[in-house]
Amino acid sequence: MSEQHRSDLEQRVTALLEAHDPATTDRAEFLRARWEAGLAWVHFPAGLGGLGLPRDLQAHVDDLLAAAGAPDNAPERNGIGLGMAAPTILAHGTPEQHERFLRPLWLGEEIWCQLFSEPGAGSDLAAVATRAVPDESTGEWVVNGQKVWTSSAHLADFAILVARTDPDVPKHGGLSYFLLGMREPGVEVRPLRQLTGEAEFNEVFLTDVRVPAAQLLGAVGEGWRIANTTLNSERVSIGGQAVPREAGMVGKVAQTWRAHPERRTHGAHRRLLDLWVQAEAARITGSRVRQQLAVGAPGPEGSATKLVFARLAQELSALEVELLGEDGLRYDDWTLSRPEKVDFTGRDAGYRYLRAKGNSIEGGTSEILRNIIAERVLGLPGEPRVDKDVAWKDLPR
Amino acid sequence: MTAQPIPAAPDLDLLPSDVETDLRRSVRAVLAKTCPTEALVALADGSDDVSGPAWSGLAHDLGLAALLVPEEHGGAGAGPREAAVVAEECGRACAPVPFLTSAVLATSLLVRLGAAESLARLAEGGTAALVVPAGTASAGSWARRTGVEVSGGRLAGEVRGVVGLPADLLLVPVHGPDGPALHLVPVDADGVAVSTHTSLDATRPVSDVRLDVEAGTPLATGDEVTAALDHALATAAGVLAAEQAGLAAWCLEQTVAHLSERRQFGRVVGGFQALKHRLADLYAEVGQASAVAAHAAAALAGESDVPVSVAVAQAFCSEVAVHAAEEAVQLHGGLGMTWESPVHLRLKRAKADHVLLGSPDAHRDALARLVDLAAPTPEAG
Ligand SMILES: Cc1cc2nc3c(=O)[nH]c(=O)nc-3n(C[C@H](O)[C@H](O)[C@H](O)COP(=O)(O)OP(=O)(O)OC[C@H]3O[C@@H](n4cnc5c(N)ncnc54)[C@H](O)[C@@H]3O)c2cc1C
């Protein structure tokens, strides 16, 4: 089966490259042609940039195109759009929403951010207080509230938003999911500086922002269920591509070790080899998760991937700072910057050490991930709940 | 020092085939019947009603003694992936069978050296043991530790800490006057004395072998022996990782099951977050161990990336198995300390497996060379 798909895809890639020589074709034009050929994300349906094929074949397409010098769609600039908004819109959107949003999202013409967390709702995402109220006269929704830690809000054209539409039912039931225009009046984005010195994320204030009825995703009150699609996609997208041995943080540390024989100690050697083995185990596990997804049998291993990744990134980057000795005490740049993309392994060791601290917080903390594994995978009892049957408006806050 | 590039990792198929899934089901069914907990526990008291039936179920009913024996010698002609499936189930069941030591380690060595006659015997359910000390990870490390010599036409000496006995046939590597050689010695030959110790892991006994026998013609000599030994030890180490992954998975499942029932403070103990988080971490480790073991088996089957894959598998899976067993003992509370509970059997097996074919430290040292992460030189620091 898979061999047939592969050779079929190879023919399509060849045809695309013949009709649009990357050397002479304008970038945007090439990307549009790639979309039309169904080679944008092969696991999406035909007509929406895909061919309905197994997901893991995308890596093969990407490799072939990269080898031919074709431009990519700068996926690192729109990670939330590609990794989280797109699968959620595909799963829960109307045909009109598919038509309107997926193509510009994939082409990178519209950048997305995620308006989930709030000052009072982080780990407890179902506690969001941002209100969306229908305006009977226009059919629009009127949104008021405050979001926080919003990565890339300063670059974004659209946001996936979870807001409260019914305060009179228990908290999980009263949420709805919206696609909100970030350039609309009433959206105010203020940078929030991180411990690295840069400001990847923001505070977002929403004051009487109007969202057209056509930009409600799914049904009113379905927001919690849909948000879970988003969060699951986030976990899956981490194990989404094959990575070579010694890629990422472990490669940085290994290079540092090789470059500085004079700084080696036996204790550090032991830690390094231990972490190298663990990184290889994480890489192999990610590769198996990918293979399971491709045959349509997603294993629950996916939920453990991020947990392991975060711990390893933190231990490896910490070791690197120590290995570098006095050089590890230098920092490259504290100037406030607003990066276009998140670069976990870019810059210097000190930056990597600090940025890695976010890995166990963003996208669900490691504690919350452990709860998810324990309860949903291992079937252990949930935490005692005081808010289960209480209307949201009556909860103490 | 010349830096070599680190070996690239091939893209290996890590999912089980239908054949492997069926094989797993049959092995699990046989072991469920033949390895009851009470019988396993009684092993350390000297009563053995379990090894015979368990091996007979695997070797005769399922034909697994001959799993790796080529078809032309009467075997199944299967490879490391299938062997890993069987080993994983043996790890789960803590089965007291010579599958790893005879059907994998000794058999791989005999296959490499083309020992037709011995292979035919193994295919019929006979067993063989490699006479090297436990902890041997490579032909190099064995050469430093063996005590058997050939002189005056006799093979004489003692090897301590041999696993895989009782067995019908001894495979004895020696460093003779003409370099390495491998001798085959029937265990019932005159001048063979095997004394079996009380072992930490009663499900896999440890013996001392004393030899004073006619040397005869060795099965093989020279570099051929070294290469075949390295290959067999790597195969066994990769397959052992699957045993360790299976053992760890059992520990996790039993612990989750126990903590889902045990009540204290008016609640199911498994609902306490401190324990849920430990189990979630263990779940992540166990899942990784299974993937890493599958990767080693696939590497062995494809004969690509074998040294790195096996070293990673041993360094990782040994640690996970011991950690899983230690967590299982702790989280079973007082029950975990009892003789009757099956949990301690896994702890003992896991700790013994930890040293069986090279410790994680030894495999990490090997990796340091393989992937160009050299240790500090004496003058550094
Ligand atoms: C770099 C970065 C980028 C981010 N980008 C975005 C974004 O783009 N969009 C967005 O919506 N959000 C974003 N976030 C927010 C992120 O999702 C939240 O920070 C996270 O979910 C944790 O919520 P909190 O910060 O409110 O912590 P809290 O929920 O207040 O948690 C505080 C501590 O308590 C622990 N804790 C809480 N509840 C439990 C429990 N039940 N059991 C055990 N421990 C518990 C937590 O693990 C944590 O250690 C980003 C965060 C970071 C760090």
TrEMBL record, chain A:
Its cofactor is FAD. PANTHER family: ACYL-COA DEHYDROGENASE, ACYL-COA DEHYDROGENASE FADE34. It holds the Pfam family Acyl-CoA_dh_1. The keyword Hydrolase does not apply. The lineage of its organism: Bacteria, Bacillati, Actinomycetota, Actinomycetes, Propionibacteriales. It comes from Nocardioides salarius. Residues 113-209 form the Acyl-CoA oxidase/dehydrogenase middle domain. InterPro entries: Acyl-CoA_Oxase/DH_mid-dom (IPR006091), Acyl-CoA_Oxase/DH_mid-dom_sf (IPR046373), AcylCo_DH-like_C (IPR036250), AcylCo_DH/oxidase_C (IPR009075), AcylCoA_DH/ox_N (IPR013786), AcylCoA_DH/ox_N_sf (IPR037069), AcylCoA_DH/oxidase_NM_dom_sf (IPR009100), Mycobact_Acyl-CoA_DH (IPR052161). This is Alkylation response protein AidB-like acyl-CoA dehydrogenase. Keywords: FAD, Flavoprotein, Oxidoreductase. It comes from the Bacteria. Residues 9-109 form the Acyl-CoA dehydrogenase/oxidase N-terminal domain. Residues 221-378 form the Acyl-CoA dehydrogenase/oxidase C-terminal domain. Belongs to the acyl-CoA dehydrogenase family. SUPFAM superfamilies: Acyl-CoA dehydrogenase C-terminal domain-like, Acyl-CoA dehydrogenase NM domain-like. Signal peptide: none annotated.
TrEMBL record, chain B:
Residues 20-118 form the Acyl-CoA dehydrogenase/oxidase N-terminal domain. Pfam families: Acyl-CoA_dh_1 (PF00441), Acyl-CoA_dh_N (PF02771). Its cofactor is FAD. Keywords: FAD, Flavoprotein, Oxidoreductase. Residues 232-369 form the Acyl-CoA dehydrogenase/oxidase C-terminal domain. PANTHER family: ACYL-COA DEHYDROGENASE, ACYL-COA DEHYDROGENASE FADE28. Belongs to the acyl-CoA dehydrogenase family. This is Alkylation response protein AidB-like acyl-CoA dehydrogenase. It comes from Nocardioides salarius.
